[in-house]
């Protein structure tokens, strides 16, 4: 009899756990429909994107401010359209992909700043150096179950140890990163935004 009650108790706990999980919005990011790009003001065009990266958008409730956005980029997948520039960017003077192959952004909170705009402070790590940075986002497709999350973050490359230049090219210190993330709600209720 005791074993029977224990198994019923276990079933109830599992059911409650599943029920609680189903009340949380669950999103899937599709990298094939998304991009992570960068731009640096320079005497010769210096812009490109990363071909290999992943992002996770998770929520602990339907409140948009309970969300977390984490992005992980394979630094060696940089593509500026020039093999020479890519080799320099992958070198120890810039991304140092041999020692630190991954670039990450891990949000610490989400702050709604307008009907469809958000500031997402987080920890940005590149070359093994971590610093607080903020990603400013605009979301489209709210209430449709899927949409685009477009955002910009700018950082000073020298604060992350990228002090070198590229021969014969004058480059600025400010690097702009642009994300365009397509996310689709695959289960759970919609996210609740402020009016």
From TrEMBL:
PANTHER family registered for this protein in UniProt: PROTEIN YCEI
Protein keywords: Signal
Protein name: YceI family protein
Record-linked SMART domains: YceI (SM00867)
Secretion signal, residue range per the UniProt entry: 1-22
Organism, as annotated: Tunturiibacter psychrotolerans
Residue intervals of the Lipid/polyisoprenoid-binding YceI-like domain: 26-184
Pfam family, one: YceI
SUPFAM superfamilies attached to this UniProt entry: YceI-like
């Amino acid at each position: 009899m005791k074993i029977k009650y224990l198994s019923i108790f276990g079933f109830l706990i599992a059911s409650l756990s599943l029920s609680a999980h189903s009340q949380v919005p669950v999103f899937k990011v599709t990298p094939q429909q998304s991009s992570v790009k960068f731009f640096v003001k320079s005497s010769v065009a210096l812009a490109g994107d990363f071909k290999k990266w992943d992002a996770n958008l998770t929520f602990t409730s339907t409140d948009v401010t309970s969300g977390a956005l984490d992005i992980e980029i394979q630094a060696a997948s940089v593509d500026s359209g020039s093999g020479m520039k890519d080799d320099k960017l992958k070198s120890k003077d810039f991304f140092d992909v041999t020692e630190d192959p991954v670039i990450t952004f891990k949000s610490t909170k989400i702050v709604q700043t307008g009907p469809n705009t958000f500031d997402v402070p987080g920890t940005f790590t590149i070359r093994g150096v971590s610093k607080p940075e903020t990603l400013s986002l605009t979301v489209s497709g709210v209430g449709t179950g899927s949409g685009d999350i477009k955002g910009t973050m700018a950082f000073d490359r020298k604060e992350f140890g990228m002090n070198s230049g590229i021969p014969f090219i004058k480059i600025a210190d400010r690097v702009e990163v642009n994300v365009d993330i397509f996310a689709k709600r695959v289960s759970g209720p919609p996210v609740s935004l402020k009016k």
